[in-house]
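Look over both lines before class:
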Amino acid sequence: MKMLEYCQRILAKVSFDRHLFAKELAKSIKRLETADISRLRQWCMEHFGQRYQDIILNTFPAQIAM
């Protein structure tokens, strides 16, 4: 399994808890390569943007565009 897929699976599993989601999102960003970080950001906004938009926007590096 690719690291991106692994991170997506973990984020989906912890999405019930705001604190866990933020913690796992930060860990995921550290684990991924730059190209996968932008894919993860897009995926997060599609799946969790309504609930955790503030966390997503604050956690991703500013230079990562959608």
About this structure: The chain has a mean pLDDT of 92. The chain has three helices and no strands.
